[in-house]
Amino acid sequence: xxxxxxxxxxxxxxxxxxxxxxxxxxxxxxxxxxxxxxxxxxxxxxxxxxxxxxxxxxxxxxxxxxxxxxxxxxxxxxxxxxxxxxxxxxxxxxxxxxxxxxxxxxxxxxxxxxxxxxxxxxxxxxxxxxxxxxxxxxxxxxxxxxxxxxxxxxxxxxxxxxxxxxxxxxxx
Length: 172
What we know:
Helix content is about 25%, strand content about 25%. The chain contains 5 helices and 7 strands, in the order E-H-H-H-E-E-E-H-E-H-E-E. Strands 1-2-3-4-5-7-6 form a 7-stranded mixed beta sheet. The chain has a single domain, classed as Gcn5-related N-acetyltransferase (GNAT) (Aminopeptidase, 3-Layer(aba) Sandwich), CATH 3.40.630.30. It is globular. The protein is of the alpha+beta class.
């Protein structure tokens, strides 16, 4: 199913909130500045990012399948964060579509030379997805728990459909 990025609506935030079942999942998805539990109407404020934009992956105006953000992080780089796919949609290629579209949008709107993200080392599905899209770990900026990954603008984004799983990133 072909989905597109769009700006989240209040109804989308209510759906997204339902994908975060507990405090541990919230921390892994959104970082330490988003408390759990939270009210869905608080999410736009809690997820606001300086020089950043939030997007939903959806078919038309339908229920979102995914959510992610991009924001300026370093000179000439844009960072992807808070990437999440609906638990019901995982394993159907929506994580790949979401990431491809976020990368394209980030390059188009920021003029950056590189895209970065962080991913937990114990998330092999997300690691495989990001690697297949052209991201490489940067060990000097990684931690024992989290890989910092980077993709240069001239890297090709693999378009192989059907990559299973959801991606989960941290906000720096």
